[in-house]
């Protein structure tokens, strides 16, 4: 019993004879916690930014600021840039994952969809991306993933029923959230197919700047680039650009290098619940019993699918 315990500790990197393993474990737990908080806060910063800016305009400024910052870092470090063909693939993935996803999230929330519900719908993307990967990447979907998808959709239905409005604006908002889900799902599969081994700084700079160009057109022609640069707007924009787009992605890459995709993707199943709590505390959005039950049900479904698959 004792020998097995020591062997397990050594294999996991926790040397019982020193505090090094425990120190690494605590640091890793801190990084995981910060990642969940940062990604959850993106829905809150977006909602706050929408108080001063139209959705596509806010998305454009977020992408442009974050892309410019990463471009400056790449130039100072003299990082290598990908070739033209690679640039094209990175741009397509960036438009899908960044522009389509986040601009649609912003439009949906601007039309009245609560932040927690928005996060819950987007959290289904590991399941929808897996289904999309079947014909594109020839991956296999397990029975557990189908069960998880059913539970996830059931949870979303419960959460939607909490504050369901039959007016056109709210229904359109839900439609934009589904478009955001389609964007990140398709973008994830495209990234996996054509952008493997992407360099974090230059690759993300290309994707963010491509996303800024894509959202600039509706921001100009549909919204007239509507934004009020007040004191309350800048914190939301800086947080969305620097913390959500740069720090969040940096943390994600750091943890992926240590643990791989399967372990880290499971962290995102916590994002809807954390977002709902943040929204209740900071935005005074109601977290009712059906919303809470839907969050729990959908989270359980996505975790079940992840657990069975891996």
Question: In total, how many beta strands?
Answer: 0
| Helix/strand order | HHHHHHHHHHHHH
Distance between the termini: 28 Å
Please give the count of helices.
13
Mean pLDDT: 81
Task: Provide the descriptors you would attach to this structure in a database record.
mainly alpha; 13 helices; 79% helix; disordered N terminus
Provide a short characterization of the protein structure.
The chain is an all-alpha fold. The chain contains 13 helices and no strands. Helix 6 packs across helix 8.
Describe it for me?
This protein has 13 helices and no strands. The longest helix is centred in the first third of the chain and has 30 residues, at 20-49. With 310 residues, it is mostly helical.
Write the layout of secondary structure elements.
Elements lengths: L1 H10 L8 H30 L5 H23 L6 H27 L4 H8 L2 H13 L5 H20 L5 H27 L5 H22 L11 H27 L1 H5 L5 H12 L6 H21 L1
């Amino acid at each position: 019993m004792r020998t097995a315990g020591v062997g397990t500790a050594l294999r996991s990197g926790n040397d019982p004879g020193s505090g090094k393993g425990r120190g690494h474990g605590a640091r890793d737990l801190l990084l995981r916690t910060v990642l969940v908080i940062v990604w959850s806060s993106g829905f809150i910063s977006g909602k706050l930014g929408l108080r001063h800016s139209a959705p596509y305009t806010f998305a454009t400024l977020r992408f442009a600021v974050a892309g410019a910052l990463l471009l400056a870092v790449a130039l100072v470090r003299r990082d290598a840039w990908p070739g033209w063909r690679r640039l094209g693939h990175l741009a397509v993935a960036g438009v899908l994952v960044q522009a389509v996803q986040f601009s649609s999230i912003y439009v949906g929330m601007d039309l009245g969809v609560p932040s927690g519900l928005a996060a819950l719908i987007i959290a289904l993307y590991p399941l929808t991306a897996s289904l999309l990967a079947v014909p594109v990447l020839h991956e296999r979907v397990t029975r557990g993933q189908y069960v998880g998808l059913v539970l996830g959709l059931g949870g979303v239905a419960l959460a939607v029923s909490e504050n369901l409005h039959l007016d056109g604006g709210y229904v359109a908002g839900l439609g934009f959230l589904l478009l955001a889900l389609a964007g990140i799902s398709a973008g994830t599969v495209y990234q996996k197919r054509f952008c493997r081994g992407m360099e974090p700084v230059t690759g993300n700079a290309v994707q963010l700047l491509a996303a800024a160009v894509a959202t600039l057109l509706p921001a100009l022609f549909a919204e007239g680039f509507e934004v009020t640069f007040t004191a309350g707007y800048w914190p939301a924009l800086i947080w969305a650009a620097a913390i959500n787009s740069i720090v969040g992605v940096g943390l994600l890459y750091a943890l992926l290098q240590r643990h791989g995709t399967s372990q880290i993707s499971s962290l995102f199943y916590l994002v809807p619940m954390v977002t709902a709590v943040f929204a209740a505390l900071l935005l005074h959005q109601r977290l009712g019993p059906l919303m809470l039950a839907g969050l729990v049900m959908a989270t359980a479904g996505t975790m079940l699918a992840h657990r069975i698959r891996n």
